[in-house]
């Protein structure tokens, strides 16, 4: 029986179905918008906060992938 792999974003109640690629793409867009300037302070702060959330989601996906690879790799002595 194959091991069930849980969604590493499941702890994020706001977006439990956001995949790595979706979060990464949205994060790239947030960064572009911040770098372009022209947003109000309030808009910039909201974008920054969203970017932090997206970066956390991406990191959880990457950490989960690393753990799966380490578990699947044969022990090396």
List the helices and strands and how they pair.
Blueprint: H1 20-36, H2 41-72
H and E order: HH
The pLDDT mean sits at 84
Shape: elongated
**Which regions contain 5 or more consecutive residues with pLDDT less than 50?**
1-13
Query: How far apart lie the N and C ends?
Result: 28 Å
Strand content: under 5%
Helical content stands at 55-70%
Backbone CA Rg? 16 Å
> Which class of secondary structure composition applies to the elements?
mainly alpha
For the report, how would you describe the main beta sheet? none
Instruction: Please provide the count of β strands.
Output: 0
Please tally the helical runs, counting DSSP H or I stretches of 4 or more residues.
2
What does this structure look like?
- Helices cover 64% and strands 0% of the residues.
- With 77 residues, it is mainly α.
- The chain is elongated, with a radius of gyration of 16 Å.
- The relative contact order is 0.16.
């Amino acid at each position: 029986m194959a091991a069930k792999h849980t969604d590493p974003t499941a702890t994020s109640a706001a977006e439990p179905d956001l995949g790595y690629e979706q979060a990464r793409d949205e994060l790239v867009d947030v960064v572009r918008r911040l770098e372009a300037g022209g947003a109000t302070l309030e808009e910039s702060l909201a974008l920054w906060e969203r970017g932090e959330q997206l970066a956390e989601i991406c990191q959880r996906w990457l950490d989960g992938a690393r753990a799966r690879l380490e578990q699947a790799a044969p022990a090396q002595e």
